[in-house]
User: Fold this.
Amino acid sequence: QVQLVESGGGLVQPGGSLRLSCAASGLTFGSYTMGWFRQAPGQERAILAAISRGGGLTDYADSVKGRFTISRDNAKNTVYLQMNSLKPEDTAVYYCAADRAAWETRSRLPDSYDYWGQGTQVTVSS
Assistant:
């Protein structure tokens, strides 16, 4: 049984930082492209960042480029999202997801991802 469990969300002031973690089990972690998504109320789920199986390649949405950093530790079956310079518009539920597709054939669409975590709330407010 595949499980992805996010942690690290919470309330942070504008300009602050958070580090999200996603611990995976029940799958061969190093065989999956991993992604972070978010969904705010009334909005569609959107990709923020993705990282290749080995961790050598990353891709970011324009909205978070330069502020967020995705990384992974395959020995710990964990993917991370370091979020800096947070803004109120970053408030959302954040999800990690696993895609068995290779990096070259990956899609940014949520439907292309095979497994999902339950999400963790991030609220940016003073």
Q: What stands out?
A: The chain has a mean pLDDT of 96. The chain is about 0% helix and 45% strand. The two ends are 40 Å apart (CA to CA).
